[in-house]
Fold this sequence. Notes:
By secondary structure, the protein is α/β, with parallel strands linked by helices. It has eleven helices and nine strands. Helix 3 packs parallel to helix 9.
Amino acid sequence: MKIIHNTESPVSPGVLMNDRLFLARHIEKTDVKYNAFIFGSSRSKAFKTWHWKKSIGKNVIPFHMGVNDESLYGIERKLHFLDSLGFKIDYALIPLDHRLLSLTKNSEAHIFREYHTLTEETSTSFYQRFFIAFLNPHFLKSYWTYRQTGDVGNDGNFLWDPGFTYHHKTGDIDYTRMENAIKKDSILFYKTNRKDFYERTPQESEQLIGKDSKVIWEKIHKILKKHHTEVKIIITPNYDQIAINADDLEYLKTMFPNKISNYSGKNGITDEIGNYYEHKHFKPFIANGILTLSYVSFRKGSE
């Protein structure tokens, strides 16, 4: 995948894209002494490092480790990765939801699989998945057409234009295309994309933190304790209005006392369609407000 830093990303061959790979390589090679990290799925991208920095101090250098369809396993592996490379993890912001809590293993799909340096997988095994995907005749046909015409066409399974801006120094992603469309005509944007906003039935998630999850959470807690990390966990306000399971929430509160802010389920945020780009991602101003409501100061020892 080709990335243009700080400008709108060009067409990206979706069948080959793996954002975990780019983040891991950047962290391995960088000379920047990052010491504050945001983890989570693509929903975490609403939380911007520049805004978070305002709350956690001038001497903090934050980096966004959030990736598409993140897993609990992936968060633990990234923390272990940072620890093994000698990074200080002074601050951690972890937005999560029922989807993330349900994923406790490395993904079999190449686009969501953790980079091999974070796991015990060999590089050969890791890249073999990409090679097999690349040989897909449908992808090769779509990619050849794109190379000849510069047009991705309508085959979103293999080529797609994400329309976002990626900031390689911070890991932040801005949904540039949708933001521009909303600024131009918000009424038209939501009318055109009305199909993305399905009817919801507010409910509570099934219990997801079981034996396997607890083993991972213990590993996460151990690393954070080692670094004396000031951690904040945000249960995100998903459009689906599915509330985190009460037992799962109690487990997290017991492990991280006074560090949990819950915005899941039916509430003033999730009721409003205008708070979302589509049914999966809420907007940055919502994340900014959540941070303000969740705590006044994020400095160590403030809570």
